[in-house]
Design a protein that fits this description.
The protein is mostly helical and about 260 residues long. It has one domain. Helices cover about 80% and strands about 0% of the residues.
């Protein structure tokens, strides 16, 4: 919780710093150039800013939506994976004791390793983990030969849940690396600078209000940039996907009979 608060405070400071820099640059421009020289071109500058602003808003909004959908999808993958582990653990009750004990002990070890090793690794931006444990579980299920219809049904369900488990795990690791390419970041930063720069070509008598508007625009752009960065790396930052579901699962598994 403290890390989250510190992250939010740090992000707020970044927004304020960006707004302060934009205001400072605009103030220097105002000191050097009289506002009347700019006011004669307000109509043209306003028209160009509206066109550029709409184009930039569309691109920026699109990127925000994409990374938000990626973030929510990541949460879904984590939930699907924990649900699949729980389901396989429960279904193993229908297996003979040797297979049941092997499957359950391996799944408990897998959950512990996800919490202890994989989650810190993903927070560092690495995508690696103990897939060998799931391979052992898959092997135990594959070699099991049902003796009656009940075991046959359990075997089929376990195979389907294992497939879901492997798929969800693969998707989870695929979300570790940021997805916004460098060329798109270049476009976003360039568009933000151009959009903000047009604010400097307006001339108004109330220079204080104009500085506040420039700072507000810079702050909003900075906020959206932070949103993109945070949601594009779903296992890091102040809104990181937490391992709470895995921790709850680790506490719940021993009570399943």
């Amino acid at each position: 919780m403290s890390d989250t608060v510190e992250g939010i405070v740090g992000e707020l400071l970044i927004v304020l710093l960006v707004a302060a820099i934009a205001i400072g640059v605009h103030y220097l421009v105002q000191r050097r150039i009289d506002y009347q020289r700019f006011s004669r071109h307000n109509d043209v500058a306003g028209f160009l800013l509206s066109v550029i602003g709409v184009m930039y808003a569309v691109v920026l909004g699109f990127v925000v939506v994409v990374v938000w959908e990626r973030y929510t999808a990541t949460q879904g993958y984590v939930q699907d994976e924990t649900a699949a582990v729980s389901n396989v653990y429960r279904i193993a009750a229908a297996f003979p004791p040797p297979q049941r004990n092997a499957i359950r002990s391996t799944l408990r070890a897998y959950v512990s390793e996800v919490i202890r090793d994989e989650w810190p690794s993903m927070q560092r931006g690495d995508a690696q983990g103990a897939s060998s444990m799931l391979e052992r579980v898959a092997y135990e299920v594959d070699v099991f030969r049902p003796n009656n219809s009940g075991e046959a049904d359990a075997h089929q369900i376990a195979m389907a849940q294992l497939q879901n488990l492997f798929d969800a795990r693969r998707h989870r690791f695929a979300q570790v690396k940021p997805s916004v390419p460098a060329i798109l970041w270049f476009a976003l930063i360039s568009g933000g600078l151009v959009t903000l720069g047009f604010c400097y070509f307006f001339g108004t008598e109330n220079r204080g209000a104009q500085l506040l508007m420039t700072g507000a625009l810079a702050g909003i752009i900075a906020v959206l940039f932070i949103v993109i960065v945070e949601f594009d790396a779903p296992f890091r930052g102040s809104v990181a996907v937490q391992a709470g579901g895995w921790t709850n699962l680790a506490h719940r598994l021993p009570s399943i009979r």
